[in-house]
Each structure stands twice: as structure tokens, then as C-alpha cells.
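User: For my dataset I need records formatted as: sequence, then C-alpha cells, nothing else. Please produce one.
Assistant:
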Amino acid sequence: MLLRSSSRRAIVSTASLFCMLLSMVSGAAAQHLWTESPPSAVSHQARTLPDFTDLAEKLSPAVVNISTSQNLTAERDLLGGGGGLDRTDREAKSLGSGFVINPAGYLLTNEHVISDANQIVVTTRDGHAFRGRLIGSDRKSDIALVKIEPPHPLPAAPLGNSDEVRVGEWVMAIGNPFGFDHSVTAGIVSAKGRFIADNYDDFIQTDASINPGNSGGPLINLRGEVIGVNSAIYTHTGASMGIGFAIPVNLVKEEIDQLKSSGKVVRGWLGVKVTRVTQDAADSNKMADLQGALVAEVMPSAPAQLAGVHAQDIIVAFNSRPINDSMELPLVVGHTPIGQTVKLKILRQGKPLEVVATIAPTREDAYQPVLAKENRTLRGRPSSLGALVQDLTPQLAAELKLGGDSRGVVISDVTSQSPAERAGLRRGDLILEVNRRSVKDVDSYENAIKQAGSGALLLLVKRDRGTIYVPLNSKG
């Protein structure tokens, strides 16, 4: 069927008008969906990577190599029981990093680098070695202050302000990974306020390559200031996976004077064991969000107990400051002056309450196991994971501040470069479960490992006053 020319023109005009209207609507919608910056706003900006050469040249002389040694005596149960004891002596060595903060020879490193050392050797960049003297250390924050006696003033690294650190900014790490001294790596700040179980820190996370031996070295911003002390990495292999953690330098600065004057850090203490709020706990307390700190245990005669805090209470605010994560609470309490009265807002079976507590000095020393002492005698049976383990006796339970009905196996030594060491297990850890299977003694522990076979294991470990899950690759 043929259309008249006038009809065709009308259809074309209508179609053109429809397309025009559709284009206008699409353009208007596009303006509401996103915003495009003008090309000139970015085309003329110089985009270059930062040059770390000057920073490395300036800061490297302040970084030192730290090596330690400790003498251990081990008594191993021959043939797995009844075969007598084999007594052996050996020297354990560790390697880490540190950096000078005062020209007179004061330097910072990690507590775990110098822990239990009977000798500390500090080597500067020019190759001179000095005997280091431990001035003070704090296990919870993993910081140690060491002094050497140099014949002349040393170059010192300036400390910055970690509160001003921004996610995404460039940073540089200097250290001794795997013994390769004064290695320089660079990356960005990946996150702030990261919490790791069993630590008194809200770590700075970075993707600057950090490997074993970097511990104790500085994390540096583009202004040449130390913003953190490299402390830990997250890894399945023992090498860097792009997730490293540094202790914020502002927290370190709060501790330096105490370490110098008294050799330890005394911080505020409330006397509660807390954990994250579970969904069941939130439901029973009619909470919309999983916020706050769930009280798992209240210490006898502690400020919290005297204030009337109960187990299963949820602490949602400390002196009007909201507690969003359970691991925030120890940091807030630790920064509170001893003797200060504070208000705790809690939820108990869905009802809001407010109690008043008086902050006391920390009692960390009361919870340190005897297994952590120097020149100790280690007993136990070697395991395929590289840990020397033994049954939990009443004496060990008392040393570890455990209840009389506690079960598990105690790690009394960890072999260097073993799967256990790479997983972060250490002396004094109490293994409660292997792959969700309860462990009551060495035999059940070994049976659980055998049944799990080779590959990945998940251990439930009690350490100090808390429990953590530790992933471990039994293949090494």
C-alpha cells in the first residue's frame, strides 16, 4: 500500500520530534545520574609517582638491624611416653629491625623482636655493631625501647602525627626482611583503625611490602616522618601478601617516657574480658546493630565488678563515647588516667543501665605465664607442626591463670621456620581445638591432627586472657 507524500512527511516529522524528545529526556536523566568533570580539569594536571630516593637516603642511616639470642633448655619425652627424657640445650636467634629516635642511642623496635633475649646486638648502617640494653618494653602494644652507647651522635628519625594519616597516602618502609638489611619498599596506607586479636593497637594497614625481619622498622610518610612501627603481616605463606600492619606512632609516643623511666607501661584497667556482640546477644537485648562490647568475664575485685558489671552485659558507651567495636574498649580504658571515675552505659537483658567505675592500674603482670620467663626448662612432645606440646597440668593451669577444669595442650616451644611459627603460635599458648575437635591432652591433639590430614588446619587457642582462631598450613 502506497502512502501519499503528505502523509509520509507527517510521519517523518512525528518521528523526528519523538527522537528529539527522547534525546532531551535521556540527556536530562544522564545529568541526574552522574557528573562529568570538564576535560580541562584533569588533562593539564601532572600525574607522576612520588620519588622516594631522597627519603631513603635521609632516613636509612637511622634504621638499624637487631639480632638477638636466647638460651633454651628442652626436655623432650622420648618415644612419646615412658621412654625417659632427653635434655638438650640450644641457642635460638631472631632477627628484626629498629630505628634511632634520639642521637644519644635510644631506639625503638618491637617487643617480640627482643622478647626473652639474653643478648641484643644492634648494627648500624655503617656496619658498626653495639651491645643493646633493654630499657623497657610493653607486650600489649608490642613496643620496646633499647639503648646503645655510640661514640658519636647518631642520625635520628623524626616522629610524625599518626592521627593525620589519610587512607590512600604514600608511605615507605625500611627494614631488614629475611636479613637483607636496609631494604626499602613503598606503598599506600590501605586502612586505619585495624584491630588484631590479642593486641593493644588500632593498626595502620599498608600494602608496602613487609616481610619477616621488617618487624620494628619505621613506616614513613612523604614528609620524612615516622608514622608507625611495622609490626605484623597477614600471610598464609610467611611472606608478604600486601597486607602489613604498623603501630600508630602517636600511641608509641604516649609510652616512651614510661618505658624510659620505669621500664614498663602502666595503663588504665577495667577488669573485663570482652568479645564482639553476637546476633543472639543483640536480639536478646533488642539491639538493631551489632555494636558495643559483650562482657564475657568480670575479674574478681576489679573496677568493673565493684561497679556492678555482670557477664553478658553489653557495654555500649564509655564516658558518653559510643563503643562501636569490642576491641575499642581496651584502647579507651587504657588511655584513661588511673583513679578517674567513669560512667559506663550498659544493656542488661534489653534494659539500659548506667554504672560508675574507678579506673585502676593495669594488672597485666599478674596474667603472664611462667613459661615466658628466661632460661626456662621446656618439657613436651614434638609434633608435626613444629611445636613442643605438653598436657595441661594443675601447675601449668595455675601459671596460666586457668580454671581447674580446663583442658587442652600447652605449647612450651616453637621450632624456627616451622608451620607453627609461621602461623604465629608461641610459647604459653593453650590449644583447645583442632578443626573444631576438642583437645584434652597430647594424645587427642595428635589424633585430631592425623584425622585432619595434610593441608589447612584451624586451631582454637587461648592466649593470655582471650581466645583466638589461628589458621595453619600443616604442609609448611
